[in-house]
UniProtKB/TrEMBL annotation:
HTH cro/C1-type domain: residues covered: 11-66
Name of this chain's protein: Helix-turn-helix domain-containing protein
Organism listed in the record: Bariatricus massiliensis
SMART domains: HTH_XRE (SM00530)
PROSITE patterns given in the database record: HTH_CROC1
Alphabetical list of InterPro entries matching this protein: Cro/C1-type_HTH (IPR001387), Lambda_DNA-bd_dom_sf (IPR010982)
Length: 80
């Protein structure tokens, strides 16, 4: 699993839990829909911390909370 895959998994799970669409997440985060779509499609392989921070705020959490989940903590990432 790549870093990009793990971020996609996490954002998908959080959106499902909160019953929001990816487009709604973009609106809540103040990020363009194309930026979020690029992350979710894997086109953006390594989202900037600033972007992750905005996504976390849009989800009502900190960056630490956003990135603190099993797949992120248990995966050894190869260089992409």
């Amino acid at each position: 699993m790549t870093y990009s895959d793990v971020i996609i998994l996490r954002l998908t799970q959080l959106c499902e839990e909160r019953k929001i669409t990816i487009n709604k997440l973009a609106t809540l985060s103040g990020i363009t829909q194309s930026t979020v779509e690029n992350i979710m499609s894997g086109k953006t392989k390594n989202p900037k911390l600033k972007t992750l921070h905005k996504l976390a705020l849009g989800l009502g959490m900190t960056v630490s909370e956003l990135l603190d989940f099993a797949e992120m903590n248990d995966t050894i990432f190869e260089d992409e």
